[in-house]
Known about the structure:
By secondary structure, chain A is of the alpha/beta class. Helices cover 33% and strands 23% of the residues of chain A. Chain A is built from 11 helices and 18 strands. Chain A has helices spanning 29-36, 61-66, 92-96, 130-133, 138-152, 166-178, 189-197, 211-222, 236-252, 294-315, 337-343; strands at residues 2-4, 17-27, 45-48, 53-56, 81-88, 101-104, 113-117, 121-123, 158-160, 182-186, 202-205, 226-229, 232-234, 264-268, 273-279, 287-291, 327-329, 352-354. In chain A, helix 5 (138-152) packs across helix 10 and helix 8 crosses helix 9. Chain A starts with a strand and ends in a 5-residue tail after the last strand.
Amino acid sequence: MRLSLESAPVPAPGPGEVIIQVEAAPINPSDLGLLLAGADVTAAVASGTEDRPVVTAPLPAAAARALRARVDQSLAVGNEGAGTVVAAGSSEAAQRLLGKLVAAAGGSMYSQYRCVDTMFCLELPDGATAAQGASSFVNPMTALGMIETLRLEGHTGLVHTAAASNLGQMLNRLCLEDDVPLVNIVRKQEQEDLLRAAGATYVCNSSAPTFMDDLTTALEASSATLAFDAIGGGKVGSQILTCMEAAASAASGTYSRYGSAVHKQLYIYGGLDRGPTELTRNYGMAWGIGGWLLTPFLQRIGLEGMIRLRDRVAAELTTTFASTYTREVSLAGALSLDAIADYARHATGSKYLIRPASA
Amino acid sequence: MRLSLESAPVPAPGPGEVIIQVEAAPINPSDLGLLLAGADVTAAVASGTEDRPVVTAPLPAAAARALRARVDQSLAVGNEGAGTVVAAGSSEAAQRLLGKLVAAAGGSMYSQYRCVDTMFCLELPDGATAAQGASSFVNPMTALGMIETLRLEGHTGLVHTAAASNLGQMLNRLCLEDDVPLVNIVRKQEQEDLLRAAGATYVCNSSAPTFMDDLTTALEASSATLAFDAIGGGKVGSQILTCMEAAASAASGTYSRYGSAVHKQLYIYGGLDRGPTELTRNYGMAWGIGGWLLTPFLQRIGLEGMIRLRDRVAAELTTTFASTYTREVSLAGALSLDAIADYARHATGSKYLIRPASA
Lengths: 359, 359
């Protein structure tokens, strides 16, 4: 795995395109797959210059096999960001954005300038800064997507792991606004405190010896039968299904040979733990687990659904959908070994913002 | 866990019911959950008399917790069976069956006489024996249900594990008839030979050192993206998804950061291995795993769908849907410690038929 900064000409925008001078772009967990490719960053080696750092790191054998089709391709990174439109194509939609501050989910946003179709641009509300708009797509649309999925698939309550993340805090605010019962699962006392201070009703600490009982009680009270899991590896997904089954059995009060008939669904949308997922399958037969990804979800709800969600994000950008960052870095700074070691840890509460204009 | 034979009065049949003198009832894997309740049969103890044996066996802690709601309930066993109608209620449907040989999926079929609603009876075709009709519901409807699920969910090829079982051989015949590509996964050379002799196109032996490559090749050739797994525990389900992803990537030829967009689905319909399921999740984000059970499937296709499938079973009972048994036992014989030890092993190719009329 090789990381570097490259010079590239800025293209002339097509009729429906604009050139954004990128001022802020977050490092999301969903960027790290493309950026780090599962490489062993503890063995990363730096070379190059201060302005043009180069970092290489070895790929574990399993990652190397999965990435065969990617070898020797140079891929730009950065799902989203925000900045000022400094040039615009001839279309009315493009011209209207000239000089405006916009957020864009155009990919390749870890750049100083980026040519993006206006379809992927969101004009920021008056007074909002580029930093406030930088994360207006991935996390807000994912949180909204979870609630939409709940409604589409007929559930009435949600479970969320890594619930103290930026996304988790956003989801907590959304669920409170929309009256959707949400069971937050965290790993540390301070994360529990943070969510309770933000008004969360159900918070379960997976490090507590009483976790399984706490979770079952919260699931009985909330009737949550749909979980979104950011972790992926380990046992927590299976534990959630086990406790959902216990809650469903307690609610029905009768023994059923194949388990409860209540469908229990777990979606894995992240991979904070890349290790194997272990399922104990003591939750009857009415259960499902699957991958959940934003893009296919948006295809499922169609353009109108997507516009409806984006309008809500714009209206509540600095309230419900606010993000916080713990560290700001330049493009070169994002390739320093200590920064890589830090953001590769996926620590909840730690979040990087790249400032491409800074040196 | 306590097993025994009990005397019970035979009820008078209601208008739409018949009394069947049960002549043959199979011990299916789906019966063993109710019959043995996950007990440790290696520690089983026999008591009672030769005619009225009693067997007790301890429950592991996990099974005991899951079965809290079942404690102290005496539950009759036997999903299906066949026999002669010796009494019938007043309805035309019931009277029409008097003296006929019928199969029934009425539950509690490990009995000498059983009162069943005519809705659950299938009149056997001329010349068919009770032994031939005894397994006319669970396995045939499950095999047909797999192919129906393939069509309902938009797949074009199937994967099946424990593929040399009675059900697996049936599914192989069905898929050949219906031109559905089927990848059979077995664990032993003689199982591979058996399926190949029966005309199977794709057979992969999971004990072979080349298993993952063999499976990927078969999946590329068959385009199978839906798997039914009878095993449940271990890694085979995850291996199937891994190879499906490799086949899908090879077909598309391009690198996609989130894996292929082809949806890969695994249904676990049995638990030959009760141990944990281990998922390596190296198959992108477009995948799903879930429990699959016959009853909710039949509810999904409705009464008309079910009648269509049952008519096909009746027409092909002694050909496509033929079952074979390796041992016949009386009701008391089914509770002998050596028989229990044998059928509790779930060995592929070993299948018991209970003959309630024999002593």
